[in-house]
Design a protein that fits this description.
The chain is built from eight helices and seven strands, in the order βαβαβαβαβαβαααβ. It is α/β, with parallel strands linked by helices and 267 residues long. It folds into two domains: 211 residues, 3-Layer(aba) Sandwich (Rossmann fold); 38 residues, no CATH class. Strands 3-2-1-4-5-6-7 form a seven-stranded parallel β-sheet, sandwiched between helices. β2, α2 and β3 form a beta-alpha-beta unit. α6 packs across α7. Belongs to the short-chain dehydrogenases/reductases (SDR) family. InterPro entries: NAD(P)-bd_dom_sf, Sc_DH/Rdtase_CS, SDR_fam.
Length: 267
């Protein structure tokens, strides 16, 4: 990605302390954006912001529980104050709680809905309010929501998670239509990442093995690779590069779209 393709832009990334979120924040910085790292993991989030700063990216940290509207308001205000604008939102924060449908926990399903659906919806809401012409930033922008290949395939033991990531896809398309019709100047897209060897991805493989759906963790990972035409797991950089593309002017006529970054697994 061109180091200047996002020069002068400011991004807020949720769940950016580690994993895919950290990779996306790093890639945005490499492309020239200033980046607000947000997460519930304050110490790790500050370390990630410091790492980006040491590599030449303008970066800062703001505490953000995406289910808390007041924290959204504070994080957006901090972004505008710190960097003088707000152009890009990456709704990355999410959780996955594995369960067979026959054993589904109401509390777990509600928790995933709160983080994955409500959290994403609040992010869109406050990005629109800041980015639209009458907002605190007022120059339009781009939103990329992180859905999942789980929204496009039937995979065992992730029914609740799949439902929430399908909801992210639907919200993306409705938000894109609203932003266009109302003249906000904001494009809204999502990506469907395949399984990556992050802490969350490896925990899913462990859970699949524990439920007896695979002989062991290696077999669980192997089954995903077997279903993936490109024959490997996703790397965080694969996902980050696709997200950055959707934020640049190269994607200027793309909105309301879902981009698979899954090696063909969802084909």
């Amino acid at each position: 990605m061109n180091r200047t393709s996002l020069s002068g832009k400011t991004a807020l990334v949720t769940g950016a302390a580690r994993g895919i979120g950290e990779a996306i924040a790093t890639a945005l910085g490499t492309a020239g954006a200033s980046v607000m790292i947000t997460d519930v993991l304050a110490e790790l989030g500050r370390q990630t912001a410091a790492k980006l700063t040491s590599s030449g990216t303008r970066a800062a940290f703001a505490q953000l529980d995406v289910t808390d509207e007041a924290q959204w308001e504070a994080a957006v205000a901090a972004t505008v104050t710190e960097f003088g604008g707000y152009d890009i939102l990456i709704n990355n924060a999410g959780i996955e709680l594995t369960s067979l449908m026959a054993d589904a926990s109401p509390a777990d399903m509600r928790r995933m809905c709160d983080v994955n659906v409500v959290g994403t919806g609040l992010g869109i809401k406050h990005a629109f309010r800041a980015m639209r012409p009458d907002g605190a930033a007022g120059k339009g922008g781009a939103i990329v929501n992180i859905s999942s290949v789980a929204a496009t395939i039937a995979y065992p033991a992730i029914g609740g998670y799949s439902a929430t990531k399908s909801a992210v896809d639907r919200m993306t398309r409705v938000a894109a239509m609203e932003a266009g019709k109302l003249g906000y100047g904001v494009r809204v897209n999502c990506v469907y990442p395949g399984l990556a060897a992050t802490e969350m991805g490896l925990k899913l493989a462990q859970d699949i093995a524990a439920l007896g759906l695979a002989a062991d963790v290696n077999a669980a990972v192997g089954s995903v690779i077997e279903q993936t035409p490109l024959g490997r797991l996703a790397e965080v950089g694969d996902i980050a590069d696709a997200v950055v593309f959707l934020c640049t002017d190269d994607a200027r006529f793309i909105t309301g779209a879902g981009l698979p970054v899954d090696g063909g697994m969802g084909t």
